TrEMBL record:
<dbReference type="InterPro" id="IPR058240">
    <property type="entry name" value="rSAM_sf"/>
</dbReference>
<feature type="binding site">
    <location>
        <begin position="34"/>
        <end position="36"/>
    </location>
    <ligand>
        <name>S-adenosyl-L-methionine</name>
    </ligand>
</feature>
<feature type="binding site">
    <location>
        <position position="28"/>
    </location>
    <ligand>
        <name>[4Fe-4S] cluster</name>
    </ligand>
</feature>
<keyword id="KW-0949">S-adenosyl-L-methionine</keyword>
<feature type="binding site">
    <location>
        <position position="71"/>
    </location>
    <ligand>
        <name>S-adenosyl-L-methionine</name>
    </ligand>
</feature>
<keyword id="KW-0479">Metal-binding</keyword>
<dbReference type="InterPro" id="IPR007197">
    <property type="entry name" value="rSAM"/>
</dbReference>
<comment type="subunit">
    <text>Homodimer.</text>
</comment>
<comment type="similarity">
    <text>Belongs to the radical SAM superfamily. 7-carboxy-7-deazaguanine synthase family.</text>
</comment>
<feature type="binding site">
    <location>
        <position position="24"/>
    </location>
    <ligand>
        <name>substrate</name>
    </ligand>
</feature>
<feature type="binding site">
    <location>
        <position position="35"/>
    </location>
    <ligand>
        <name>[4Fe-4S] cluster</name>
    </ligand>
</feature>
<feature type="binding site">
    <location>
        <position position="37"/>
    </location>
    <ligand>
        <name>Mg(2+)</name>
    </ligand>
</feature>
<protein>
    <recommendedName>
        <fullName>7-carboxy-7-deazaguanine synthase</fullName>
        <ecNumber>4.3.99.3</ecNumber>
    </recommendedName>
</protein>
<keyword id="KW-0460">Magnesium</keyword>
<keyword id="KW-0456">Lyase</keyword>
<keyword id="KW-0004">4Fe-4S</keyword>
<dbReference type="Pfam" id="PF04055">
    <property type="entry name" value="Radical_SAM"/>
</dbReference>
Length: 224
């Protein structure tokens, strides 16, 4: 089930700033309080894989970078055929996953951006810690932080699992202010300046990231 397919600027990860086609799948089994794509929980329609591939080419004009996201894309078994065929077509394929699903089934050519859930997300107990052993130097780990407590938790996890040695990049994000949704409580936001100060104080081997698309367009805009 597809929620939306759109062509935009990649807003996060080490791929930020590059033109990218996004394929957003419907559905998620998590309910992170700060989620900014709550509309993807229930909105979507069924597409054939061939039709998705054709739409990626149509709107992207040959763009070589594609991200499969959600929701939680790995909940849908057919996502693996989609990602495999995108790779076969010569695309660089990113998948953004919560890490609550098994990432081992992904095609080895797919770059996995795994979002480890912090206590402030409300879903920390859903982390599938065995996924960490599957990560490679092509993959990235993202942690969205809501507070100083989340930062301290993330710092400990990064050290215990030696994440900078395992992956291409460890990405720290300060949560944006998110209004309450239909199912979610929202978030008050975390100062990016405060997060930067904590990272510099501790000398963490991480990449501080913003959501670039929210600086370019309205933070509540869809399809960007």
């Amino acid at each position: 089930m597809i929620n939306e397919i759109f062509y935009s600027i990649q807003g996060e990860s080490t791929w930020a700033g590059l033109p990218c086609v996004f394929v957003r799948l419907m559905g998620c089994h998590l309910r992170c309080g700060y989620c900014d794509t709550e509309y993807a929980f229930h909105e979507g329609k069924r597409w054939a894989v061939d039709d998705v591939l054709a739409e990626v080419e149509r709107i992207g004009g040959g763009c070589s970078l594609v991200e499969v996201t959600g929701g939680e894309p790995l909940l849908q078994p057919s996502v693996h055929e989609l990602m495999r065929r995108l790779c076969d077509a010569g695309k660089t394929v990113l998948v953004e996953t919560s890490g609550a699903c098994d990432i081992a089934a992904c095609d080895e050519r797919v770059i996995r951006i795994m979002d480890l859930k912090t206590p402030g997300s409300g879903e920390v107990e859903r982390n599938r810690w065995s996924n960490i052993e599957q990560l490679t130097q092509r993959d990235e780990v993202k942690l969205v932080l809501t507070s100083r407590e989340d930062y301290a938790w993330a710092r400990q996890v990064i050290a215990e699992h030696r994440l900078p040695e395992r992956v291409k990049a460890v990405l720290l994000s300060a949560v944006h202010e998110i209004p309450p949704g239909r199912e979610l409580p929202g978030a008050t936001g975390l100062s990016l300046r405060d997060l930067a100060a904590w990272v510099l104080e501790d000398g963490l081997a991480v990449r501080l990231q913003t959501q670039l698309h929210k600086l370019i367009w309205d933070p509540a805009a869809r399809g960007v």
